[in-house]
Amino acid sequence: MFMNKNSCLLIVALLGCCSFVFSQAVQIHYDKTSPLASYAAELLGKAIRGKGYTLSSTQPRIAISIAANAPKLGEEAYAISGNGHKITVSGGDYRGMIYGCLSLAEKVRNGGRLEAIKTLSEKPRYALRAIKFDLPWDTYRHSDALDLHYETCKDLAYWEAFLDMMVENRINALTLWNLHPYTFMIRPKSFPEASPFSDAELQEWKTLFAGIFRMAKERALDTYIIPFNIFVSPAFSKAHNVAMDNLQHDFFVKGDTSELVKRYTRECVAQMLQEYPGITGMGLTLGEGMGGMTPEEREAWMKETIIEGMRLSGRKLKLIHRIPFSSTTNSLGVTSVETERLTRKEIAAQGQLSFLQPPIFADLKYNWSHAHSTPTLVKVHGGKLYDTYFKPEPQNYKINWTARNEDFFCLRWGVPDFVRSHIATNAQPYVGGYMIGSETYIPAKDYFTRPGIAVNWKYAFERQWLFYKIWGRLLYNPQTPDAVFQSAFLQRYGKEGTNLLQAFSLAGKTPLRLGSLFDFTMDLTLYSEGFMALDDKVKRVEYISVDRLIDQPVTDPNYVSVAAYVKAAAAKQSFATNKVTPPKLAAMLEQDCAEALRLVKGINTSGNPALPFEVADVQAWAYMGLHFAEKIKGAVALQAYRTKGGAANKQKAIMHLEAALKYWDEVVRITRPLYNDMPLVHLSEQNGVRSEENKHLLFHWEKIRPDVAKDVEVARAATNE
Fold first, then answer.
1. How is 260-289 classified by DSSP, letter by letter?
2. Superfamily of domain 128-480
3. With pLDDT > 90 as the criterion, what percentage of the chain qualifies?
4. Residue 645 backbone zone (phi > 0: left; psi -120 to 50: alpha; other: beta)
5. In terms of pTM, does the model score above 0.90?
6. From residue 51, how far is each of 21, 28, 29, 488, 632 by CA, in Å?
7. Protein fold of 5-122
8. Where is the Beta-hexosaminidase bacterial type N-terminal domain (predicted)?
């Protein structure tokens, strides 16, 4: 019987999902006094037992030795060697040892026989592979979408699961952000009046944070505390009549640079780092709570407070120096080479400090708050970026790219080639890592799933397992093949998962293409999952109307806007073949989304509670992509009618926008039975004001259907005068 390559791969993958009973006894040798070695052995042992092996020290058939600090291996690297009955897992450090055990465990779960293991090895591409995690207390923004995670994030069981996920996906650092973290962690010795908590309440917080840092250390994870700078506790403000502007902890406030606030901050930093030795580093964010300060004043404040507090702690620490727009602007609010030079000089100076562990990570937001758009670097926070930070190549700091996701939280997503392209674009030696995460979403409580539906996950991040697996594994090793992600689907869903990776890879391009076509700036200017964006005229987030789609500039310079395309067509001008014109984009969306729908058609979703959601999310992205394609075609026809007339153009516009509405109805049909009306930070700030009323606004695709339908009426009422 003839079998093609794909058929063979499928059979191998399916065999990997079967539960063969090997029955051989296996002994794992490791340093039982080491929590890190014990954790690695536990991960490996679980996988081995799951495939029918037994763990025994009595006449074992196979012996596995795991150890760290192999002299020939670098940090986080590992090597595995086997000769049938003896396997050695060596790590360049404890983290590498854990990764080696995970790799061997993955091999076994996919059907590999321990006796057949020969050699395996990997080493990291980036030194920093971090999660940006905004804690729900004292948050940067204010919304029910953030507040509802409070209890979940106070549960150490949640953190254990989240940290395990990070380790599994080779993500090596957890960065914890909020406006003023200190009083949740310590009672300042010199300023006990700053604490709002009783002794019992504070002990609960201390137990929580001590537990997080302990579990992180046991998993060889780095932890960073990143405050949003010149904020103090409300109790401290009232007691000393300082920083009164930030009583509500709104980040757009004037900086209080009084000596008292400096001393308070400096001592809080030092005490926190002394009381929590598990913290491995801190971050600087030179923007929030620093209104009215020059770049020089901001850097000086950091030096006198957080940096000095780190020195006073008496510890060797790591540092992330975030470079937001507000720290590199001149008095006119314009980014300049001079201010970039100042920031580079300060970062380089920090790299010389003996109590800071090199390299310093100089952090920039990749394509502002919407990295899930184009892998081409178009802008950073503030827009313009010169080459100051890269030339000459830095010696004691590395660039870290923050890949923010403010674009999709509910629908599952995963496009491996997009992340590979991101990494390939940033292969320069001065790039040291990535940080992934959101500021308008916390991956804790599942507030998406409708009540009464039986599911086999507990936390929100478990729904987005593919997102974390793709980003983490590829940041560690960009050569990780799709077979790794494919086998993860097969492990979860058996043969019904065969087409899901390819389907997600196709349908998941929909938000990326919207972000590439529709220009954006800060967090709330685009929400791709809802096909929504900030309307500057009314100062609120709304469905992207056909007129907005026509007029909005593009993000990716290789894309062509609807307005520019119609104008060029009227002048009989053509575009270079590498340009993505609206008709070309519509065709790409139609082809990929139709194929994604074909791939998931006929999947039997009855075998696993999560499978109906996986299929539905592919379908939702696909129908949204088809909606997008019809909307583009309708926008082109409508703009053509407005500029040069022609009844046929108007009829085309109406026809395509009616088709777009029908595809939107498919999105509603698929999502309504599964998903709640959801709180959304993007809706919390309407007309530039945060109010209690706005705070409770909810999102669902069905709720904005009337706005989708308005496009048809706009086309019907159009004139070409």
1. HHHHHHHHHHHHHHHH-TT--EEEEESSTT
2. Glycosidases (3.20.20.80)
3. 85
4. left
5. yes
6. 6, 15, 19, 16, 51
7. Chitobiase; domain 2 (3.30.379)
8. 19-111
